[in-house]
Structures are given as C-alpha cells and as structure tokens.
C-alpha cells in the first residue's frame, strides 16, 4: 500500500507541476464537452496522458480509469482512478481550487488516494486503515457540529435539467444550515471536509474520478461517505460528514427526492 501511495503521490506531483508551469500559456485552448460550460482544456488531456504513461511504465498490467480517456483494460486486479484536473472551471479562471486526483483500487476497494492542489501547495494523501494527511500532517474532520451550525459545501452539474433540481435542493438546505460553499472541485471539497474547513458536503452527479481519492481522505479523517437511503456513494448521490451530522443532512436531503433531473 505504501508503494502505491508513493507512486501515486510522485505522479500527482509531476502532473501538478506540469499544469502549474504551463497553465498561463495554454489556457486559451478550450473545447466543449457535454455543454458549452463544460470546458476541457488541452492541458486536461496532457495531464491524463502523463499520468497514464507514468502508471503504465511502473505497473504495465494495471487498469486505468480516467475522466478523459475512459477505461483502459489490463490484466491485474489493480485499477487506477484518475482525474487529471478536477475543478476545470477554476483552473481556467485562475482560481486555486483545482486538483490532480489519483486513487488506487485493489479488487474494487480504494486503498490509497492522493489529491494534489498545486495552486495551494497542498497535497492530501490517505491510505486505507492508516489515516489521512495534509502535507504529511494527520487530518481529522470536525465532529459534534449540529446541522443548523454546519458549513456545507456542494456542487452543481453541467446540465440544465440537473441544475434546476440542484437549485431547488440548495434553496431548501440554505435556510437550515450555517452557510453554503460552492468550491468548484469535488475532490478539494472532500479534502476540505477532512481538514475541518467545512463540516459537510453533498452533491448529485459526481463521478468516481472526482471522489475516489478524496473520499478515502475524508473517511480516513473520520467522516462518513455514502449515498441516500443506505446506498453507497455513487454518481447518483454523495453525502459526507462526521457521523451524526451525516444522518441529519441525509434526512434533510432524502425527502426532497434529489436523485432526479428535470
Ligand atoms: C466537476 C467538479 C465540480 C462538481 C462537478 C464536477 P470537473 O469536475 O468536481 O466541483 O460540482 O459536478 O463535474 O468537470 O471540474 O472535473
């Protein structure tokens, strides 16, 4: 596991350095993905290519799932789950909350995760059963926070029909919590929760490459991560908070039937 974490961290650092160094000269190269606001830069693809090359050079049989390139088949029971830039819109606008996210999954279970936030000089790491760290210092999420006092982060998808429902949900949540944050990177949001910078997080529509590594950081820092009504976290829904607040937030969200798009 230590080897996986070290390799993932080395690669995430190299990709982050490359992105930081090249960002100003290449930020104009934009193409559209599922809608005009879903921007994918040339650097997003370059970052994923770099990560795939480095992983396969070290572990040629492993499988890789990346946001840009999809799933690459392989012989081993190890799968790397990669988001070359989570928070693409922040990246594009020069805001600091974007990350390179790399998780290592063995037989379906994430065992190691790295979230590199280069513009903040912060690298979050986690190893299953061993803990979560920010630049090497151990992390614990906030505990004992009641919902009414909770700082809750969330995010919104790129599609209009999804955003309409997400807007209704956040309108219901906002008067019942301390405040809402929309950071723009699911991976950074979950790591912020692990570091006690927010108390809770929820979102519909995030993908394994967004939450695989950061989800391990959050749970190893003491948080509970799951879906609605006892289901595991999935692209359909994610809720994350310390036990107690998790249930309170879940019970506020679930009756809203938020796993739908209009
Ligand atoms: C997005 C970010 C954002 C979340 C979106 C994601 P991307 O990922 O994580 O915070 O709200 O749902 O799609 O497109 O920047 O990799």
Brief rundown of the structure:
35% of the residues lie in helices and 26% in strands. The protein has helices at 2-26, 42-58, 88-93, 160-173, 186-194, 208-220, 245-253, and strands at 30-32, 39-41, 63-66, 70-72, 78-86, 99-106, 109-117, 122-127, 131-134, 137-138, 151-154, 179-181, 200-203, 224-226, 238-241.
Features:
262 residues, alpha+beta, Fructose-1,6-Bisphosphatase, Chain A, domain 1, D-Maltodextrin-Binding Protein, domain 2, 2 domains, eight-stranded mixed β-sheet, five-stranded mixed β-sheet, 15 strands, binds D-MYO-inositol-1-phosphate
Cα distance, first to last residue? 43 Å
Please tell me how large the radius of gyration is. 17 Å
State the domain count. Answer: 2
Largest sheet: 8 strands, mixed
Strand order in the largest sheet: 4-3-5-6-7-8-9-10
Task: Tally the beta strands.
Answer: 15
- Count of DSSP H/I helices: 7
CATH architecture of the largest domain: 2-Layer Sandwich
- CATH fourth-tier homologous superfamily of the largest domain: Fructose-1,6-Bisphosphatase, subunit A, domain 1
How much helix is in the residues?
Answer: 25-40%
Quickly name the level 1 CATH class of the largest domain: Alpha Beta
CATH topology of the largest domain: Fructose-1,6-Bisphosphatase, Chain A, domain 1
Element order: H for helix, E for strand: HEEHEEEHEEEEEEHEHEHEEH
Strand content is 25-35%
Return the structural class: alpha+beta
User: Mean pLDDT, nearest integer?
Assistant: 93
Ligand roster: D-MYO-inositol-1-phosphate
Low-confidence stretches: 35-39
Question: What is the global morphology?
Answer: globular
């Amino acid at each position: 596991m230590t080897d996986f974490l070290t390799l993932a961290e080395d690669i995430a650092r190299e990709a982050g350095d490359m992105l930081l160094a090249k960002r100003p000269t290449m930020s104009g190269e934009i193409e559209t993905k599922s809608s005009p606001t879903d921007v994918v830069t040339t650097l997003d693809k370059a970052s994923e290519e770099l990560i795939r090359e480095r992983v396969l050079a070290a572990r040629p049989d492993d499988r890789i799932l990346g946001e840009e390139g999809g799933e690459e088949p392989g012989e081993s029971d190890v799968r790397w789950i990669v988001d070359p830039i989570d928070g693409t819109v922040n990246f594009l606008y020069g805001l600091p909350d974007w990350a390179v996210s790399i998780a290592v999954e063995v037989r379906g279970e994430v065992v190691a995760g790295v979230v590199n936030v280069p513009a903040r000089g912060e690298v979050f790491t986690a190893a299953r059963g061993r803990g979560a760290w920010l630049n090497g210092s151990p992390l614990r999420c906030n505990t004992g926070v009641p919902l009414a006092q909770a700082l809750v982060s969330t995010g919104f998808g790129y599609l209009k029909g999804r955003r309409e429902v997400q807007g209704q949900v956040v309108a219901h949540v906002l008067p019942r919590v301390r405040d809402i944050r929309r950071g723009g990177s699911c991976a950074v949001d979950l790591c912020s929760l692990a570091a006690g910078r927010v108390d809770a997080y929820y979102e519909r529509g995030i993908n394994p490459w967004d939450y695989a590594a950061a989800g391990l950081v959050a749970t190893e820092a003491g948080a509970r991560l799951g879906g609605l009504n006892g289901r595991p976290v999935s692209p359909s829904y994610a809720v994350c908070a310390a036990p107690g607040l998790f249930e309170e937030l879940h019970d506020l969200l679930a009756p809203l039937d938020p796993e739908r798009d209009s």
